Structure formats: C-alpha cells, structure tokens
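Work through this protein:
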Amino acid sequence: MLAQSAPPELWAVIHEAALRIPVGGPATMHEQLRHLLELGHDHYRIVVQVLPFEAGSAAFLNGTVIQMTFPDAPPVSYAESAYTGQLVEEPRLVAQYQRAYDLIRAAALSPKASLALIQSVAKDYKTP
C-alpha cells in the first residue's frame, strides 16, 4: 500500500517501550527499527514520532487507535485492543479520539528527534 504511486499519508506515534522491549531477538529488533528508519527517511508521506517514557502515561497505552480521514467521507477511528477492534463512526467519539491523538503527537519527540532515537536504539540491538 505504501509503495503505490499515490500512497496514503501515514503519521505514526510509537511509544518508546515498543523500541526497547525486545520481541523476536536482537537481530529482529535491529531489522525492524532499520525498516522504520527507512520509512521515516525515504517516504515524504510517512511521519514517525516516538512518545518517550518521560512523557508519562498517555491515552492509547492500552491499545492502538487509527484515525482515518477521507476526501469524500467523514473521518472515522478504529480502536484496537488485545482481543477486539471497533470502528468508531459517531462524530463526537471520533473527535475525542482525534483530540487524544493530537495531545499524544504534541507530547512526542519531533520527527527528526524520533528518527535519531530509533537509530540509536537500533545500534544497541546490532549484534557484533
């Protein structure tokens, strides 16, 4: 989808814990973080931000929320937890999700600082 001639815009906020808690071993983590770096550097329609531990607790720490906007339809939110997902179409709730997302983006590192942190953590996972 991101390789299309006109890919969608993607703005991802990733908690620092997702970078630092190893899943799949050091080689896998290194590869995944390098992929994030490539996406953040090479695709003008992809923005990656990291929400640092110092930001404290945040609204979406218990799951994933995807905000979707369309040129010809109202915005929707998709909230996902460990066991279920829910498409949210009610405008008042979509606005609440958007507000929470905006606050998280504001608390996150800048895109440039986020990529620098990801690069630093990726180096930590690189096996000698």
Summary: Helices lie at 16-20, 26-42, 91-107, 111-125. Strands lie at 10-15, 46-51, 64-70, 73-80, 85-88. The CA atoms of residues 79 and 109 lie 23 Å apart. The longest helix spans residues 26-42.
